[in-house]
Amino acid sequence: MALDQGTTSSRAVIFNRRGQIVGLAAQEFRQIYPRAGWVEHDPLDIWRSQKEAAQGALRKARVSARQIAAVGITNQRETTLVWDRRTGRPFHNAIVWQCRRTAERCSQIQ
């Protein structure tokens, strides 16, 4: 199974032992723009959409999670998330790699 966490959607692909795609599903999630140039994602939306994509791919492939031999994961560049280690709950929305809120500070560091 491949899990691809992208900028606008979560995808899951199931391959058979010959490397052929036997199940594929995707779930979009919303982009949040709190200010001009700022981009965020709700971490719970990311989690929900990835779970739904994985479940959809398993259904389409007609296999159970127990039959999966390996999982590969890709993610969306430098998107950042901070969560509470005790509860597992996010402190804030994820700051997406496209967000420009720190552009000035990054220029100063360079």
The CATH homologous superfamily is called: ATPase, nucleotide binding domain
Share of β-strand residues: 15-25%
Mean pLDDT: 95
CATH fold topology: Nucleotidyltransferase, domain 5
Oligomer: single chain
Describe the structure.
The protein has 110 residues and is an alpha+beta fold. The protein has one domain (2-109): Nucleotidyltransferase, domain 5, CATH 3.30.420. The protein has two helices and six strands. The protein has helices at 43-61, 103-109, and strands spanning 2-5, 9-15, 21-28, 40-41, 72-74, 94-95. The strands form two sheets. It has a four-stranded mixed sheet with strand order 3-2-1-5, with helices on one face. The protein has a two-stranded antiparallel sheet with strand order 4-6. A hairpin with a 5-residue loop joins strand 2 (9-15) and strand 3 (21-28). The longest helix is centred in the middle third of the chain and has 19 residues, at 43-61. It is elongated and about 50 Å long. It starts with a strand and ends with a helix. The mean pLDDT is 95.
Which features does this protein show?
110 residues, alpha+beta, Nucleotidyltransferase, domain 5, 4-stranded mixed β-sheet
Task: Spell out the blueprint of helices and strands.
Blueprint: E1 2-5, E2 9-15, E3 21-28, E4 40-41, H1 43-61, E5 72-74, E6 94-95, H2 103-109
Parallel strand pairs: 1-5
Antiparallel strand pairs: 1-2, 2-3, 4-6
Short synopsis of the structure:
This protein is α+β, with helices and mostly antiparallel strands and 110 residues long. The chain contains two helices and six strands, in the order ββββαββα.
